[in-house]
Amino acid sequence: MKAVAVLPGKAHSVHLRDIPAPGLGDQPQPHVTAVPEGRSVLVKVLQIGVDATDREINEALYGNAPPGGDYLVIGHESFGQVLEVGEKVTTLRPGDYVSCTVRRPGHSLFDLIGRNDITSEETYYERGINLCHGYLTETFVDDAEYMVKVPVNLKHLGVLSEPASVCAKAIEQAFLAQQRLQVWNPRRAFVLGAGQIGLLATMMLKLRGMEVYTLATKPGPHHKSDIVEAYGATYVSTRQTSMHDLAAQVGKPDLIFEATGNAEVCFRAMEILGHNGALVWTSITGGKHDVTIDGAKINLEWVLGNKLLVSSVNGNRHHFELGLQALSHGELTYPGVTERILTHPVAGLDNYAEMMRLLEDKDALKVYVNVA
Ligand code: BGC
Ligand code: ZN
């Protein structure tokens, strides 16, 4: 069957290759954790989303091939339909729509209790990213443990399950961490960045009843600012109003959700957070970027203001479920808005070069491949 792969370490090596099609009895190849007998699910891939991580993998800034091989099948944002299930699978049946999680367990205590998203080992296993093949292919097999059912009436948003899990986890992490305060009822949130993560975070924070400002560089109106406004949030162009000016005008935020991919913004955000607030970092900034900040001022304000920085990556099945609940709630509250994130479909695996080209295009909000 066809698969889109890269040669990790070699820039711009994305290519189409032929790999063996798995059967229900096969293990994911090569596998880091064996699927227990009878627990396999065979999935037909319908759509795969791609993001900046895929771009960085193709630029050889990130990602590794599975042990013993030189190529990595990419694609970690999955959406598919169940073809066959093993005899011990009770949660899924053929025809169900699913998304499959990205990380697989290592050996730390966190991995053993189902929290591979917070593994304490430096080596992490992620399908389509690090040491495990991904989903940008025709069919795949995996453990039912990692498959999350997508409600049939949400299948038009199924390809957003993984990005939604990342947002839902990051927000949940902030709320869990803020239990340190005994009472935390955030009223005002700034979302930094209006890519898919920033937009989904905007929706999720609006659903929690907050006053949300979503900041990005380009002055509106445009497609992204329209989506922000359709969620009932306020779009702010930092070219017109800096985040410092915005904080001075509307008040400092209780919560900042950072999703710009820009290291400087990550640190500048520390200058505007309100007392007892939480700043959540979700960007994964490849390469090197020195930033100059007034460390004394930030330290003073952070200590006197009891401020908190939370970092969040990945999502396990619990976070996929939270993400899907939020997508469902969002769809009922803001009908038809979230699908406007799905701007750039690519027809079939054969068009992988077009997919990579669109990933470079700053105006392409969401690139995804219609595989079947
Ligand atoms: C993925 C996450 C993953 C992270 C780090 C992101 O693009 O969406 O699932 O944990 O990259 O590799
Ligand atoms: Zn991703």
Beta-strand percent range: 15-25%
What is the CATH class name of the largest domain?
Alpha Beta
Largest sheet entry: 7 strands, mixed
The ligands found in this model are:
beta-D-glucopyranose, zinc ion
CATH architecture type of the largest domain: Alpha-Beta Complex
Number of domains: 2
Order of helices and strands: EEEHEEEEHEEEEHEHEHEHEHEHEHEHE
- Amount of helix: 25-40%
**What is the distance, rounded to the nearest whole angstrom, between the alpha carbons of the first and last residues?**
13 Å
Question: Number of DSSP helices?
Answer: 10
Mean pLDDT: 97
Q: Low-confidence parts lasting 5 or more residues at pLDDT below 50?
A: none
Count of beta strands: 19
> Tell me, what's the shape?
globular
| Structural class by helix and strand composition | alpha/beta
Radius of gyration: 20 Å
By CATH, the superfamily of the largest domain comes out as Medium-chain alcohol dehydrogenases, catalytic domain
Give the CATH topology of the largest domain: Quinone Oxidoreductase, Chain A, domain 1
